[in-house]
Specification:
InterPro entries: PEGA, TPR-like_helical_dom_sf
Number of domains: 3
Structural class: alpha+beta
Distance between the termini: 80 Å
Number of strands: 9
Strand content: 15-25%
Protein name: PEGA domain-containing protein
Organism: Pendulispora brunnea
Keywords: Membrane, Signal, Transmembrane, Transmembrane helix
Largest sheet: 4 strands, antiparallel
CATH architecture of the largest domain: Alpha Horseshoe
CATH class of the largest domain: Mainly Alpha
Strand order of the largest sheet: 3-2-5-6
Radius of gyration: 27 Å
């Protein structure tokens, strides 16, 4: 029923904006600036997108519609792309598609239609979280779930869908950092990164005291390991709850899907934290075993040899 209602909404909305999705034979509107071959491909992809939507695959449908838009841009297609995002629970994608639809359609969109789409946009906002990301250094590249969003200082908050999001900060000359954060709809959260500079090549440690980098790296490794253990435990609990729901008489498909999403979210978070723990542990080990062969400097260092670890230096 839910899928059918989405389809009805798609067709009705399409007819209101004279979108080709309401009539498969039309496809994207002809344009003197579009190559006829590209226009034919755009129509084919548009029709394919409609079929995929009817088959209950809004993600694949969206990809085809976006490709049709690239080949033969038309603001009308953007609304249907937004509906596909909405059907796949990507609220941020739907919001941006609807906003682009209004921005590109401008005066061509009837006032009543404009108000209707704005109402749809407002209904999406409670499902979207906003995250303020800052860093101790300017020009730090920020990515969310491996998708670049810009460099610090970011001009505005990052809009994100609910769930566990992986935030990565990187800059040349500094250790990269990755953090995970769990967001719910309407959350207004913040996340900061304190970047640690990489040691300069050949730099000596200060006399009378060693570098703090190994301690920082081991501390971070420990914290990540604890986080990995906690999220791993939560993933196991979520998986057990999922199995209980599947075996429970009368369980709905929505309950099963929610349980699977929860298990998947915690599993991804645990995998990310385990990978980060291994990476940070390797870095910590490297700095712990780093040595200097210049015994005349009066420094001591650890040397890795085939037989084990030895201490070299002058005392």
């Amino acid at each position: 029923m839910k899928r059918t209602s989405h389809y009805v909404a798609l067709v009705l909305a399409a007819s209101l904006v004279s979108s080709p999705i309401a009539a498969r034979a039309q496809g994207p509107a002809p344009s003197a600036t579009v190559d006829p071959a590209k226009l034919d491909e755009a129509r084919e992809r548009y029709n394919r997108g409609l079929r995929l939507y009817e088959q209950g695959n809004p993600v694949a449908a969206r990809i085809e519609l976006e490709r049709a838009y690239e080949l033969a841009p038309s603001y009308r297609i953007l609304y249907n792309i937004g509906l596909c995002y909405q059907a796949s629970n990507d609220y941020v994608g739907a919001l941006r598609a609807f906003q682009r639809y209004l921005a590109e359609g401008r005066d061509e969109i009837a006032e009543e239609r404009h108000a209707s789409v704005n109402k749809e946009i407002q209904s999406l906002r409670p499902n979207i979280a906003s995250l303020t990301i800052s860093s101790s250094e300017p020009g730090v590249a920020i990515s969310v779930d491996d998708v670049a969003v810009g460099q610090t200082p970011l001009p505005e908050k990052v809009l994100l869908n609910p769930g566990t999001r992986k935030i990565t900060a990187s800059k040349n000359g500094f250790f990269p950092q990755t953090k995970s954060i769990v967001l719910a709809g309407s959350d207004n959260a913040s996340l900061g990164f304190e970047l640690v500079a990489l040691p300069a090549p050949g730099a000596k440690e200060k006399e009378g005291g060693g570098s703090a980098l190994p301690y920082v790296a081991w501390g971070l490794t420990g914290a990540l390991a604890v986080g990995a253990g906690v999220t791993g435990y939560l993933a196991l609990r979520a998986n057990a709850d999922q199995n209980d729901i599947i075996d429970r008489p009368g369980a709905t498909s929505g309950q099963v899907e929610d349980a699977r999403d929860k298990t998947r979210t915690f599993s991804i978070a645990a995998d990310c934290l385990v990978a980060a723990t291994v990476l940070t542990g390797g870095i910590a080990l490297y700095f712990s075993l780093r040595k200097s062969d210049k015994a005349a400097s009066g420094e001591t260092a650890a040397r890795v040899t085939p037989g084990g670890i030895s201490i070299v230096g002058r005392f």
